[in-house]
Amino acid sequence: MLEDFPVEDIDPLATGAWILGTGGGGNPYLSTLNLKRLYAEGHRVQVMDPAALDDDDLVAVVSGMGAPLVGQERLKDPRHMARAVELMEDYLGRPFRAIMALEIGGANALSPFLAAALLGRPVVNADCMGRAYPEAQMTSFAIGGLSMFPLAMVDVRDNEVIVARAESWKWMEKISRAACTAIGSTAATCKAPRTGREVKDWGIHDTITKAVELGRAVDAARARHADPVAAILDHEGGKSLFRGKVVDVDRTTTGGFLRGSTKIEGLGEDRGAVLELAFQNEWAVAFRDGVPVAMTPDLICLLDTVSGSALGTEAVRYGQRVSVVALPAPEILTSPAGLEAVGPRAFGYDIDFKSVFA
Description:
The protein is 31% helix and 27% strand.
């Protein structure tokens, strides 16, 4: 039912989650250092199969919230994530059985581990995105029509917020995003609590395992001096979209999000073409010479061509040699209800979803 999470899996988890984050979720570097420090201090984390949850167990769903660029400027403290869980328990008057990630993307994949290490709870091998998304309503739980409240938020200044109720998922996003923006566009959050039954029915399962195995595949390719980008495509059944050099980045932090676009001039077989990646925290749509060629919910990943490391929307810069790849999305995200929540129109693009893998 419970398996120890070994310290040697921390780096592969971070590598795989950063790729699955599709440019968002926060760079996992600082969270990785924090988790390794907790392990060095004697803390340990166990991972729990979602099938082992009792139907009436309560599960805490945690994540950092805000703009990725701000999250890198303000150092993280694992105690804030743990406090968000405790604040929700205080409000509910009931303890959580386990903790899970809101998203398997980037630093948020490590968020439940940081809280779990300090609180002595297991981490559920699941999330509710299978990648990273910027808004509260962009989850499998929202697609399933589950409750969106209450929400607990904690920041570094000792501010604590409970959003007791919201009319809809979009209203929860508006209210909590406004609070997050007011305290500096970065905070630790514990989302609406989920029952074991809800996690089993609507969670995206085994995503911790998925991220760790992807990270291991990248590490193995590097060790044998093979192409890590090719290893990612082989491991995930992905498709190569473009290779080139970053020539322009337009990036603005506004409304608690990082928004903008990145322009890439083609190299090799793509020479003479231009790919533009539009983003809202995460890469949302890829336009080749003005024509959309990949779009959410397919995972659009920007990778360093040599190392295979993921590049976040907050750190991409002029001159980088990059590879753009697409990975398949979890099935629930491509359902009619899923496309309404996370398809291109959910991000303001008047485009019918067409999967790279159709």
